Each structure stands twice: as structure tokens, then as C-alpha cells.
Amino acid sequence: MDENTCLDVLVLAETYGLVQLGQAAEEYILAHFQCIYAGETFKDVPCSLLTRLIEKDSLSVESEVTLTLSLLVSFMQSLISVCTSTPVCTTLLFCAFVESSLTFLIHQSIQTYISTLQALVLVGGDTVDDELMKRVPSQTLWFAQQFHRGPGLMKNIEWKPFATFPDPARFRHCVCLLNNKLYILGGHSDVFSLLRFDMSQGKWERLPDMIYQRNYFAAVCLEGKVFVLGGNQDDSQYLDAVEYYNPEENTWRQAHPLSTAVCGHAAAVLGGQIYISGGCDLHQCCLPFMWQYSPSRGSSPRAPMTVGAGRAGHVMLALGKGLVVAGGLQPLWMGFGDQLLCELYDSTHDSWSFVPPLPWPHLSPGATVLNGQLYVVGGSSANTARDTKWVHRYDPKEQCWENLGAMPHPYADLAACCLPLPTGLFCPIYLLSITPHS
């Protein structure tokens, strides 16, 4: 079965009730739809079958809008052929019907596209001011409006600020997305507070403070709750404490502590389980460990990371069926150095495998997953103490990193996330309406 025969196989299977063959053909079509709908045999697909295919969640296309426009072009070509061989009155009635149908299709497509559009968003961080005299924390949320490719290797990103969160400005903080609402937690300078941003209304809400002030900590969402794990206070007191926020109760509660006090670690959720990797302990030693954490039972050791003697200030995110660990620093014979090597954790086999190295240092960067690809943004270099301005993207299919361009400023100790954009985001009235609310 290939791209030229799969449609015929599906029709044959449905005609003769060959269920397994039909399922195999349908899965093949959905996975290769981008190539199939450009082929010669696609124009012979029955409308009922086409409708069923494009409604499937597993349909693999680069853009729903591009797909819809391509289908409309094919439809119009068919319309032209009908009009050349149909009496005038019948043709006019047919055109009127097609016009209303196309209007509905385009409207539905655009609404679907807008409702599912996601963007890479930068949250807070700190950078050097324009006079190069001091570091200035940020209160701005930036989103990547467009990724541009110039001649040769030249690339840049068009950034737009779309919100400012209430005081104080934050760095060394964490963000979580729960029920399409953005949570901003903790950070440097005695920040206990928790903020929530409702994208649909463009409003901020200040929620109850955390029990502990935290920076260089980790945060994840699990079972409708926001968990914060470890971290430190004032760069001195390391924490093993874990607490969680319940939006329904609007309260913080303590969970089982970690097996060791740690900061600069990373945490992620995979298969409904929380995993924690690396970090620094009370003696400022970088740890290579990996734990599986349960809020009721605590930490259980898993296979340690295999790259270097330890890692801290890194990111770990679920990508496909595994956890990718990237960036941060590693212990050297004297001091610390940048860690460019990356690895992938397989929770099923409790094992690690190689991932191509980062092309640039990212210590305490922001990171998120968007459209099945990992974005690592900003941070700094342990070797040079300089801020990193670059955005790198890892494509698991191509197994390579790509430099997409620079951030609006070289932010360090920032956070990043993937947010669903509201319908009116590009409207100036919406942008002006997003102001901090206590």
C-alpha cells in the first residue's frame, strides 16, 4: 500500500467489510494526508469519505487553513467543469448553493484555526538595561508572532508584547498552564505570590501566597492541581518541601517532601506521573539522579542520567513517549561549565538514550513544547557568564536542533510556555485592555 493505492484500498475494504484492512488503510491515509490530497486519485474520493477523514483528530497536515484552501481550489476546479456542460439555469442554482456552502466552510475553518492557534510565549526573566549598568527584571509577556527565514542561514522572530503582569517583576520563577489559564509562581526576592492570567478575558488575578518563598524550583500540573517542588530561599536555604494549589478550594496544601533538599532541578509529567531530574544539593553538588515522585508517597529513585557527573539549571519536558533533558551546567574539576549534551529518558524501560547536543549554552532557560517540537529559549552561559539571546528548536523527527533567531532581549532566568491565543489578540483594543489587576 502506498500513496497512490491507499484510497482504493480503503474503498475496497469498506465495500466488502474488511475491517482490519480498512483501519490500516485509514491510518495510512491520515498519516500521509499532506501528500495524498495533492495526488491525482484524490479528486475521485467520495464527499462522504472526505468529510469523515478531515474530521479525524489524527489527521496529519501542516496547516488546517492551507488544507481547506487547497480543497476549495479543487472544488472550484470541479465547479468550472460542471458549469461548462450544464444548462444556464441549473448552473446558476448550483453556483448559489456552492457560494453559501463555501462561505460556511471558510467561516468554520477560520474559527477552528483561531480556536486552536498556539504561540510560543516568554514570561519575565531579567536582562541588562540599555546603559549596560544594571540588570532589570521583566514583567512582560511576549509572544512569537512570526518566524522569518531570510537568505542563507539568516533567521529572525517577530515578537509582540501582549500583557504585563502585576508587581513584582520576576525571574527564577515558574509558569504552569492549567485549564487554559496561565499560573506564574514564585521567583527571586522573597516572592511568595501566585498570579493567574485568564487569556479569554485578558485579566490578572492574585491568588493565595505559597507556603514557602521559592526560586530555582520546579512546578508541574497534575490532576487539576499545581505542584511546586524544592527550590531555595535567599540563595541559602534549600528546600525539600512540596506543596500544591487546588483551584477549586483556592488553597495551598503540603504534600510528601522530596527525599533530599534540591534546587536548580527540573520536573515534568509523563504518563500521569511526576519525574524530577538533577539539581544541586545543600553542598552545591550537581546531582545526576532521576526520581519518580508521588504526592502521597514521596520520591522513588529511577535510573540516573548518563551524561556527565550531574546536571542543574536544565530543562526537562515530555516529548512524545519520553522526557528530553537539555541545557544547564555540569560539574568540572574546578567549578562548573556549560552542558550542551542532551538525553532522552524512557520511563517504560527506565533507560536513557542520546539526543543531539545543543548548539549553544542555555543555563536556566525557558522551555516548552509546541506542535510536537521542543523550544529552548534564553538563559545564560556558565563558561562566559553572558546571557543567551537565542531560541533553539528540537525536531524529534529530524533529530536535530535549529536556531530560529533571537528573543526581543537576552533574558536569563526566564520562563516560557505555549498559550492558546484568543480570537482578538491582534486587535489593538484587546492589547490595550490587558492591564494588571490585583
TrEMBL record:
Cited Pfam families: BACK, Kelch_1, Kelch_KLHDC2_KLHL20_DRC7
Domain BACK: 6-83
Keywords recorded for this protein, A-Z: Kelch repeat
Domain of life of the organism encoding this protein: Eukaryota
SUPFAM superfamilies (alphabetical): Kelch motif
InterPro entries: BACK, Kelch-typ_b-propeller, Kelch_1
Cytoplasm keyword on record: no
Keyword Transmembrane: no
Signal peptide as annotated in the record: none
Name of protein: BACK domain-containing protein
